[in-house]
């Protein structure tokens, strides 16, 4: 079983490494990967899941970044909104985002199938999910390492009936597009935000983490 698994362990892990995270990330997150992920983002409404310190989408004024780690969010440099939140219980209305980004974060979800159901619920029709994932089993003791066929299975089984996946870079970048309406699922959040609330808040300034 991977060492970093589930919300509680993931939160503790990133709270502890937050002071050194930017230095670590600079070594392992290559510029071509960043450029490729950014080039695949579509639309204005972007959700970065596991945003960390904002390396991937911090340049986007209309993006929203969520993370479990309060310490990571304190250190984030971000033009959009930052929210301390769990994707498994998202504080957003259905069909809010054009693109969801998982830059080294998808494999921390407690269940990939439940996670992709929530992803599909949050995406607008025609929306896209981008997943940057490690391609080496050397990381298996720390995190789950999924094969390309597993990512395809997650997307097709839960997100939509006819998703397509494409693309590969130094690690792996998988892009899946929502092509039909998935089933809606209860995510257990008492308050959800719609797109107009999100964009309206962006005009007033950055959301601080809770």
Can you give a write-up of this model?
The structure is a single chain. With 210 residues, this protein is of the alpha/beta class. The protein has a single domain, classed as 3-Layer(aba) Sandwich (Rossmann fold), CATH 3.40.50. The protein has seven helices and seven strands. It has helices spanning 7-17, 21-28, 31-40, 70-74, 112-122, 148-159, 195-204, and strands at 46-49, 63-67, 81-84, 97-103, 123-133, 165-166, 172-177. A seven-stranded mixed beta sheet has the order 3-2-1-4-5-7-6, with helices on both faces. β2 (63-67), α4 and β3 (81-84) form a beta-alpha-beta unit. α5 crosses α6. The chain is globular. The two termini are 31 Å apart. Mean pLDDT is 77; it is low at 159-172 and 179-210.
Write the layout of secondary structure elements.
Layout: H1 7-17, H2 21-28, H3 31-40, E1 46-49, E2 63-67, H4 70-74, E3 81-84, E4 97-103, H5 112-122, E5 123-133, H6 148-159, E6 165-166, E7 172-177, H7 195-204
Helix pairs in contact: 5-6
Unreliable runs, pLDDT <50, ≥5 residues?
Answer: 159-172, 179-210
**What is the CATH architecture term?**
3-Layer(aba) Sandwich
Q: Helical percent range?
A: 25-40%
Count of strand segments: 7
Number of structural domains: 1
Strand order of the largest sheet: 3-2-1-4-5-7-6
Question: Mean pLDDT across all residues, rounded?
Answer: 77
CATH class: Alpha Beta
Largest sheet, in brief, is: 7 strands, mixed
Class by helix and strand content? alpha/beta
What's the order of the H and E elements?
A: HHHEEHEEHEHEEH
CATH homologous superfamily grouping: Vaccinia Virus protein VP39
Q: Termini separation (Å)?
A: 31 Å
Taking all Cα atoms into account, the compactness measure Rg is 16 Å
